[in-house]
Amino acid sequence: MTLAVVHTKYNLLETARVPIAVIGSLAFPTLAFCLFVLPQRMVVENPEYATAAVASMVVFAFMSASLFSIGLDLADQRAKPCAPYLRTLPGAPGARIAGLMASTLIVAAVAMVPLLVIGGLFTSAAPQPLDLLAAIGLVIVTAVPSALIGVIIGTTCGPKAAIAVTQVAMFVLAFGGGLFLPPLLFPDWLDLVSKFLPVRQAREIVVGTALGTGAPLWALLGILAWTIVLGALAVWLYRRDEGRRYR
Q1: What is the DSSP string of the chain?
Q2: Exposure letters 185-219 (e unless 16+ CB within 10 A, then b)
Q3: Distance separating alpha carbons of residues 203 and 235, to the nearest angstrom
Q4: What are phi and psi of 125, to 5 degrees?
Q5: Of the ranges 17-31, 44-58, 181-195, which one carries the lowest mean pLDDT score?
Q6: DSSP state at residue 125
Q7: How far apart are the C-alpha atoms of 9 and 191, rounded to whole Å?
Q8: I want to staple 215 with a disulfide (CB 3.0 to 4.6 A). Which of 18, 141, 205, 207 is the partner?
């Protein structure tokens, strides 16, 4: 755990040394919200719809940060000449992954602040304070499956392939998860399929908590199952990659 904290610190420092990377990570979710949500007056002027839209874009912020930051950074790190040397050090390899995931979630949490400010100022969203705090905590927890998907992409793909795979994964998960288009507008077959996606489950948990209606049981069970399955797969792939490259 101590080594994971060290890796988190230096991942944050490395990110801060590239200002455009920080600005892009902070501005992208808010820009998407301004372009896709604010022009829809029916959504902006309805407190329930506005709250759901803001919560959905917060989930999108964490999902996109997890996929791009973890997937691309991990693929890039594996391609660097120093990667074989790092594998000879006595530190646990999982500490590097934990540090990368933690730093990514911290950046995503900071990126959530301007999004919440814009949503509070320019929409009718008005969640209860306790519901808002609970939703903020849950959006971080429910982002773990997306982070694990990023680990799997970064472990199995090279830097160039990781870009293409991450872009496809982001759009499929975002659209299928109801982040761009509310699930109420889905046809029955798409609504049923999307309920099996971890991002849709994360959206339902966060939106339900923000609205005060509670998270559906199927979403809670689904996100737990995805976390276990993706975690086991990510650990197995990473250990296999570590052993193959070390030999």
Answers
A1: -HHHHHHHHHHHHHHHTSHHHHHHHHHHHHHHHHHHTTT-HHHHT-HHHHHHHHHHHHHHHHHHHIIIIIHHHHHHHHHSTTHHHHTTSSS-HHHHHHHHHHHHHHHHHHHHHHHHHHHHHHS-----HHHHHHHHHHHHHTTHHHHHHHHHHHHHS-HHHHHHHHHHHHHHHHHHTTSSS-GGGS-HHHHHHHTTSHHHHHHHHHHHHHHTS---HHHHHHHHHHHHHHHHHHHHHHHHHHHHHH-
A2: ebeeeeeeebbebbbbbbbbbbbbbbbeeebeeeb
A3: 25
A4: -60, 130
A5: 17-31
A6: -
A7: 40
A8: 205
Where do we find the tokens 């029955």?
188
At 23, list the tokens: 């600005």
How confident is the model at residue 245, as a pLDDT? 52
CA distance 100 to 98: 5
Residue 68 and residue 63: Cα distance in Å, rounded?
9
Taken as a whole, the chain contains a residue count of 247
What is the value of pTM for the model shown? 0.87
